[in-house]
Amino acid sequence: MLSIPLAAIATPSLQAPGPATTLGSAAILGPVTPTAPLRLADACLGIADLPAFTSDSERHQDGSGPRAGSEPGSTPLYQRRRRALIVTGPRAAWHTALEDEDDPWLRNSSDYDVRDRLQRVDMRYCPSARHVRLLLTLLTSTTASLASTAPGAHELPSPPAVIVLYDLLSLLADEHEDGVNDENRAPGQGVDMRPTTIQSDAFATTPASAYLDLIAAARSAATFFGAHLLVLEPRAPDALPIAPAGKGSGGVPPAARERKVPLSDTLRRLLGEVVLIEPKQVEEQVDEEVEYAVVVDGETSGMRRRRCARAEFAMAPEGEVHGAWEWVWV
Question: Which parts of the sequence are annotated with region: Disordered (predicted)?
Answer without folding.
Answer: 55-76
